[in-house]
Amino acid sequence: MSSSSGQRSGGLLAVHAHPDDETLATGSLLATWAAAGRPVTLVTCTRGERGEVIGAALAHLEGDGPALAAHRETELAAATAALGVTDHHLLDTLPGWTGGRLEDSGMAWADEGRRAVAAPDAVAAGTAFSVRPLDELAAPLAALLLDRRPDVVVTYEPGGGYGHPDHVRAHEVAHRAVELAALAGEPYEVPVVLWAAQGRTRAQAARRALRAVGADLGGLTAPADDDVFASVVVPDDEIALEVDVAPVRDAVLAALRAHATQVQGVEPVEGDAALVGRYALSLGLAEPVLPVEQYRVAVPDGLRGAREPLPDLGWPAGVRPVA
Predict the structure, then answer these.
(1) pLDDT tens for each residue of 263-291
(2) pLDDT confidence of residue 309
């Protein structure tokens, strides 16, 4: 039951589009929050049934939506266990949801794989998460917010990190749910809303470090020698919060390995100030695990600008606002 006082619980609630996103975008924050003994709730909006599949052993799952969805649920369970997250929900299983099963909308890679956009024919009309009515999707999440009373809600920035239509919709759903909870007519202290991000300086340094590894990338393709980044990368002065990755790195890498249909080449990196690990998605392009996981504070209408101040929430050790 929700608290009549409307007070926050000290908890964190993350809203993600597919299994694997919780680790790729926010794994260190989730693991750090959980390790501090604070409540962590994860809501996953779809089962990722239209995802690409890595490796011959599981290749038969690609294109078989129900089978891939079932398998990715097991991967998600293993990943959340590695991160220490025990309160996990699929959006279409929350109380109050009556719209049937929510499905992955699909996407297409573009720009040589450095960012993703939705192909016009990639949406499964009617059942896809990205095309369902916003308030219909947000209402059960708002009820969960009223019950859990988190200090912090975390999701993607308005561009969905790299353009996936389900990431964009998850961002919209998270924000609308916070609005609906505040309009529900009972005392409610609105949480801080964070967007997963990477500061440009760190992103550039990590890309250079991965290129320097060269042949030691284990068959992965080194990042391009350019300054093209997805929307998750922002000017440094927009970063408002950082999470130390080192204390939870092993948990994050274990969670990445749990998503074996989606993530490959997961390895720690030692002795490099620019990265503490690396991995790749289906295209085989090397991606860094940065030494800090970074976040922006939500700003009205997604407008870009200098970072917003953060309240003193008594952040867990390893989680620090940027001065």
Answers:
(1) 999 999 999 999 999 999 998 999 999 99
(2) 78
Q: How many CB atoms lie within 10 A of CB 321?
A: 17
The whole-model pTM stands at 0.93
Answer yes or no: is pLDDT of 209 > 50: yes
Chain center to CA of 179: 21
Say what the pLDDT of residue 113 is. 46
Residue carrying the six token digits 């749910």: 177
Antiparallel, parallel or unpaired: β 233-234 and 241-244: unpaired
Digit-coded pLDDT (tens) for 37-47: 999 999 999 99
Q: Is 75 helix (H, G, I), strand (E, B) or coil?
A: helix
Tokens of 230: 């997805």
3-state secondary structure of 191: coil
Are 28 and 256 in contact by the 8 Å Cβ rule? The answer is: no
Q: How far apart are CA 46 and CA 50, in angstroms?
A: 10
For 238, residues 6+ apart whose C-beta sits below 8 A from its C-beta are 197, 199, 296, 304, 305, 306, 307
Helix axes 249-258, 65-83, angle to 10 degrees: 170
Answer whether 148's CB lies under 8 Å from 12's CB.
no
CA pair distance 276, 269, nearest whole angstrom: 5
Tell me the C-alpha distance between 56 and 242, whole Å. 37
Segment (H or E) for 64 = none
Looking from the CA of 190 toward its CB, the CA atoms found within 13 Å total 14
Q: What are phi and psi of 58, to 5 degrees?
A: -115, 10
For 276, residues 6+ apart whose C-beta sits below 8 A from its C-beta are 245, 246, 249, 268, 269, 289, 290, 291
Q: How far apart are the first and last CA of the chain?
A: 37
